[in-house]
């Protein structure tokens, strides 16, 4: 947007001046960007640079803010956003956020960089936002780390600790942090390098960028790990429209040699994005390599999804164990998963964007859009088939638990239910294990409840409900957000399901509900469902119900979780 009456600010200056506005204001009208004609100067919201481009960079999702004149409504602060603002999930202060980037532990702090448009609550003008944390749960906002430049937007990438100065770009033998990322313009996508001399606070772009360019406008999202057996850095990067993941090696992070290509494999979709390669522990001993590939659009559930392959990486190529495609989620709001680099004891930890390109830019918040999943610990586990599957569990969440709410376990007869009030404005974690009774005798085929179902409902007196349910006959779990009235859009589909172990009337589950985010971890994290949820009014109660057959609740704990995010939310 070009507004001749507004002096254009540099992005960083604009952001810091905008911060003094605070977050508590009511919705601002269309004139909010225009300075008053008299009185003290009002700080201006950030302004996008002049638009000279005719086109957007090549990605399978539209970025309206990249279109000339594409910022018809910039960031607006409104109280309407507060009930949807998570208390323990990372969200940007204002603007639009998508993929996690540069996930790295620097020896003291965890860094979370992220795809960020500071100017408006939809995609475009991509910068790297930044936050740091001592525990992956309490985040402190940091200044923007990488700007959009004349060479293009700062698309997705990674950060690594070059602790021995292999790059030769640092003045001391201890080295420092290196970011590798894509600069994306309408004509080119190439891999760039930047160094940080202050532990990730600020970056200097390498003078001889790009460090990897194959003359393509569909080549992006590098992720780099150190491969000990060959003593080289290995990069995986997407040749998006070719549906291939390219592997490169380097000894100095600057010069890259092509090793191999993987794919097309698994889901096809339109674009392959955000590949990640990591060696993951197998429960019971040993390790396997995992290759994560995000696909958009093309998910079985619609839109964006992260798939994975389990196999071997020999330093040159990734060889999958079999033709199985794993999906990281059975719902549709976990995308662009990225793993942490430089983790002590090689712990595998990931964060994904809690969103889907099908509706990310239309969500019913005005001042900010985009959330991250909780950090998740990842292991490989043999399931009932003997196959290796990803198990994900929230990392460190128990440290946020407040005194559990009174919520008795025990028996529920068929048709019986139990209800407790939910604390308002707080994230809650529900942990339970349930065994549904054997199918009662005498029920006719097709009778409702013949199977025995256990239903968990978060609801309100207005009739809105969010249900998670277990069907003991078929051993399947469902998630149903379709009875929430705060947001509707054709792709914002309501119901998802997944298979748990067959012939097992027992299930265990952890559910984290935090404002507009829901994360479900069933059977120790083998089945994970991540969903955005938008009730029109707050959800006031939790109801547990045995339908068709009785059920025994073996354990049941409902914890309010202590707020970690410095944001104005419903409770503050
Ligand atoms: C994935 C993605 C990446 C790209 C970034 C742009 O969501 O499309 O491929 O680097 O988002 O913001």
UniProtKB/TrEMBL annotation:
Domain Glycosyl hydrolase family 32 C-terminal span(s) in chain numbering: 423-559
Keyword presence, Acetylation: no
GO molecular function: hydrolase activity
Keywords, in A-Z order: Glycosidase, Hydrolase
Organism: Komagataeibacter medellinensis
Keyword Hydrolase belongs to the record: yes
InterPro entries, alphabetized: ConA-like_dom_sf, Glyco_hydro_32, Glyco_hydro_32_AS, Glyco_hydro_32_C, Glyco_hydro_32_N, Glyco_hydro_beta-prop_sf
Segments of skewed composition (Low complexity): 29-41
UniProt domain Glycosyl hydrolase family 32 N-terminal: residue ranges: 89-394
Protein name in the entry: Glycoside hydrolase family 32 protein
Source organism phylogeny: Bacteria, Pseudomonadati, Pseudomonadota, Alphaproteobacteria, Acetobacterales
């Amino acid at each position: 947007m070009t507004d001749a009456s507004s002096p254009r600010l540099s992005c960083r200056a604009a952001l810091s001046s905008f911060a003094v506005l605070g977050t508590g204001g009511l919705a601002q009208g269309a004139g909010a960007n225009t300075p008053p004609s008299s009185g003290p100067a009002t700080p201006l919201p950030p302004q996008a640079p002049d638009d000279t481009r005719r086109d957007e960079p090549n990605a399978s999702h539209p970025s309206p803010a990249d279109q000339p004149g594409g910022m018809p409504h910039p960031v607006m602060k409104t109280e309407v956003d507060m009930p949807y603002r998570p208390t323990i999930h990372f969200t940007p202060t204002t603007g639009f956020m998508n993929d996690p980037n540069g996930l790295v532990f620097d020896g003291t702090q965890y860094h979370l960089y992220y795809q960020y448009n500071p100017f408006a609550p939809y995609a475009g003008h991509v910068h790297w936002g930044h936050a740091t944390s001592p525990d992956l749960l309490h985040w402190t906002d940091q200044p923007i780390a990488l700007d959009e430049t004349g060479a293009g937007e700062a698309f997705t990438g990674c950060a690594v600790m070059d602790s021995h100065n292999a790059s030769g770009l640092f003045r001391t033998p201890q080295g420092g942090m290196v970011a590798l990322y894509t600069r994306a313009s309408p004509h080119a996508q190439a891999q760039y390098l930047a160094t940080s001399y202050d532990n990730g606070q600020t970056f200097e772009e390498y003078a001889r960028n790009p460090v990897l360019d194959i003359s393509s406008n569909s080549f992006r999202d590098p992720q780099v790990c150190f491969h000990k057996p060959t003593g080289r850095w290995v990069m995986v990067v997407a040749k998006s429209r070719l549906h291939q993941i390219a592997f490169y090696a380097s000894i100095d992070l600057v010069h890259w040699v092509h090793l191999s290509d993987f794919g097309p494999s698994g889901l096809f979709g339109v674009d392959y994005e955000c590949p990640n390669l990591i060696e993951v522990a197998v429960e019971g001993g040993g390790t396997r390599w995992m290759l994560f590939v995000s696909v958009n659009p093309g998910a079985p559930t619609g839109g964006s999804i992260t798939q994975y392959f389990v196999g071997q990486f020999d330093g040159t190529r990734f060889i999958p164990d079999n033709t199985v495609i794993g999906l990281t989620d059975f719902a549709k709001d976990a995308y662009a998963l990225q793993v942490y680099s430089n983790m002590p004891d090689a712990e595998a930890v990931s964060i994904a964007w809690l969103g889907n390109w099908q509706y990310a830019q239309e969500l019913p918040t005005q001042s900010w859009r985009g959330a991250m999943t909780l950090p998740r610990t990842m292991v490989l586990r043999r399931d009932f088939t003997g196959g290796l599957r990803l198990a994900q569990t929230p990392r460190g969440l128990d440290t946020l638990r407040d005194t559990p709410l009174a919520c008795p376990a025990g028996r529920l007869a068929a048709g019986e239910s139990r209800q407790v009030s939910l604390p308002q404005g707080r994230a809650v974690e529900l942990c339970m294990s349930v065994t549904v009774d054997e199918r009662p005798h005498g029920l006719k085929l097709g009778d409702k409840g013949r199977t025995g179902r256990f239903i968990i409902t978060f609801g309100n007196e207005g009739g809105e409900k969010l249900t998670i349910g277990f069907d003991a006959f078929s051993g399947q779990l469902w998630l149903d957000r379709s009875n929430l009235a705060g947001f509707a859009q054709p792709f914002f589909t309501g119901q998802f399901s997944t298979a748990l172990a067959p012939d097992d009337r027992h299930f265990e589950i952890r559910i984290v509900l935090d404002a507009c985010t829901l994360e479900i971890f069933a059977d120790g994290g083998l089945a994970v469902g991540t969903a955005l949820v938008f009730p029109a009014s707050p959800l006031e109660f939790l109801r547990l119900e045995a339908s068709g057959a009785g059920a025994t609740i073996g354990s049941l704990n409902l914890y309010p979780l202590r707020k970690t995010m410095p944001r104005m939310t419903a409770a503050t």
